[in-house]
């Protein structure tokens, strides 16, 4: 069973590993190196959970941290009511392919609907990331379309596939 919980101090070193290279981040998640200690700084300043975004730990049956579920508030329409949540997931290499990502996205989306008034949660992934597309569909998301050349990674522009889930779906 997959669950979500607050990020704890010992989790930070594990979560920071996703920025060490493509072999840990995953091919589609590797966007280049970032500042070492970036998540630790956010944790120490209390910015892991904010009103406009956050990170929760994804844990397995044994309570071992297997990844992270993250979200950020985005503007899709005119203010003040054009906000939605945009979610992301990262699962540690040894824990991939076991359903943690789909379940974490389902649980995280339910959490966001329960604790905010926003009507829409969206996620996107590269068009060739079929595994993540399947995970989003298992989590109850609806395929909306393709965002052409929306992401620059690995020296080239790539298409992204957009998914959403509305409150009550």
How many individual domains?
1
How much helix, percentage-wise, in residues? 10-25%
State the fourth-level CATH superfamily. Gcn5-related N-acetyltransferase (GNAT)
The CATH architecture designation is 3-Layer(aba) Sandwich
Oligomeric state of shown chains: single chain
CATH fold-level label: Aminopeptidase
Low-confidence segments, given as residue ranges, are none
Give a count of the beta strands, DSSP E runs of length 2 or more.
8
Global shape = globular
What's the CATH first level? Alpha Beta
Description:
- This protein has one domain (3-166): Aminopeptidase (3-Layer(aba) Sandwich), CATH 3.40.630.
- It is globular and about 40 Å long.
- It has 169 residues and is an alpha+beta fold.
- It contains five helices and eight strands.
- The model has no long low-confidence stretch (mean pLDDT 93).
- Strand 4 and strand 5 (83-91) form a beta hairpin.
Present the secondary structure layout.
Elements: E1 3-6, H1 11-16, H2 22-25, H3 38-44, E2 49-50, E3 53-59, E4 65-75, E5 83-91, H4 100-115, E6 120-126, H5 130-138, E7 142-153, E8 156-166
Parallel strand pairs: 5-6
Antiparallel strand pairs: 1-3, 2-3, 3-4, 4-5, 6-8, 7-8
């Amino acid at each position: 069973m997959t669950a979500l919980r607050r990020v704890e101090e010992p989790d930070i070193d594990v979560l920071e590993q996703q920025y060490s290279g493509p072999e840990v981040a995953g091919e589609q998640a590797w966007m280049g190196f970032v500042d070492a200690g970036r998540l630790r700084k956010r944790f120490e300043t209390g910015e892991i959970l904010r009103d406009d975004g956050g990170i929760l730990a994804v844990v397995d049956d044994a309570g071992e941290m297997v990844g992270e579920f993250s979200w950020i508030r985005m503007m899709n329409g005119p203010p003040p009511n054009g906000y939605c949540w945009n979610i992301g997931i990262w699962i540690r290499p040894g824990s991939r392919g076991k359903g943690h990502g789909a379940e974490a996205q389902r649980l995280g989306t339910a959490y966001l609907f329960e604790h905010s008034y926003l009507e829409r949660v969206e996620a996107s992934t590269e068009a060739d990331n079929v595994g993540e597309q399947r995970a989003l569909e298992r989590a109850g998301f609806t395929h909306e379309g393709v965002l052409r050349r929306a992401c620059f990674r690995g020296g080239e522009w790539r298409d992204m596939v957009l998914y959403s889930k509305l409150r009550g779906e």
